[in-house]
Amino acid sequence: MAAGPEMPEVPDPGGSGASSHSDPPKALPEAWQPLLGRPALAELLGHPLAGAALQEMCRLLPPHIAVHSLRTFLLADACARTHGIAYDRVGLLAAAAFHDAGLVGRTPLGRGGFPYRSAQLLDHFLTRHQVGTVRRTTLTRAVREHMRPFPARDAGPEARLLHFGVWLDVTGRGERQVPGDRRLLAGLAPTPRFALSFSARVVACGLRRVLPGSPDTHG
Q1: Measuring CA to CA, which residue among 103, 197, 208 is closest to residue 146?
Q2: Is the pLDDT at 6 greater than 90, yes or no?
Q3: Please, which pLDDT band fits residue 3 given cuts at 50, 70 and 90?
Q4: What pLDDT does 104 receive?
Q5: pTM, entire model
Q6: Is the pLDDT higher at 91 or at 147?
Q7: Cα-only R_g, the chain
Q8: Within a 13 Å sphere around the CA of 70, how many CA atoms are in the beta-carbon half?
Q9: Which terminus of the chain has fewer CB atoms gathered within 10 Å of its CB, N or C?
Q10: Is 219 helix (H, G, I), strand (E, B) or coil?
Q11: Which residue has the higher pLDDT, 206 or 187?
């Protein structure tokens, strides 16, 4: 990954165990291991909130979307390190873990489509883990706005970095900022034809206003 300055650990206002560490999450999929071994992720594996987010991602997401979420975080972190951007590392990992959660399941989608549903799921997760309101608002906004063509002018670093990682992994946009990282991560954890299958899922949600597989056609 791109080298750069060490990112400062951001405190977890209102969170439990923010500065403590627990055992790394167990029984995560084998396909994730090459990505979990990258320094930006390996450094967070003992953090309680990071471990919980990874476990939820494993439970909620299909394998190819989960791998995309991990690559998204790593690409976002590479951009931050390259440009010396301080950001909430654990919070961004949680946001990356949930940013596409609204694409799966059987719940009807309301106004705002799947990104809004993803943000709701993230907010519920963060609330359960006693993350404070300001931090929750920042992270859920990042998820809610990640499908915008470009970040809002007043978007904070978490929203900008999540947006960068998502769009780079799916479309290749922004590759010059972290040259070689996208190809490296795709080689470590490949998801063949991911962009095509992901786009089809997004279109299905947009047209039907419900999540794939749901018999309900009313949003």
Answers
A1: 103
A2: no
A3: very low
A4: 82
A5: 0.81
A6: 91
A7: 16
A8: 34
A9: C
A10: coil
A11: 187
Report the chain's mean pLDDT, rounded to a whole number: 82
- The residue count of the chain comes to 219
Cα–Cα distance, 23 to 27 (Å, whole number): 12
Alpha helices in the chain (DSSP H): 33-36, 39-42, 48-60, 63-83, 89-98, 113-128, 133-144, 157-171, 181-188, 194-208
Q: Are 49 and 13 in contact (CB under 8 A)?
A: no
The phi and psi torsions of 159 (rounded to 5 degrees) equal -65, -40
- For the record, the structure tokens of 152 come out as 């809002």
142: left (phi over 0), alpha (psi -120 to 50) or beta: alpha
Helices 194-208 & 63-83, crossing angle to 10 degrees?
Answer: 110
Q: Which two tokens stand for residue 112?
A: 């705002």
**How far are the Cα atoms of 52, 53, 85, 148 from residue 82, in angstroms, in the given order?**
28, 25, 8, 23
Q: Is the dihedral of CA 131, 126, 161, 157 positive or negative?
A: negative
pLDDT digits (tens, 9 = 90+) for 13-64: 334 334 334 444 558 999 999 999 999 999 999 999 999 999 999 999 999 9
Q: Is residue 64 a contact partner of residue 32, using CB atoms and an 8 Å limit?
A: no
What is the DSSP-derived secondary structure letter of residue 189? S
What DSSP string runs through 90-118? HHHHHHHHHTTGGGSSSPBP-TTHHHHHH
Least confident of 69-78, 156-165, 185-194: 185-194
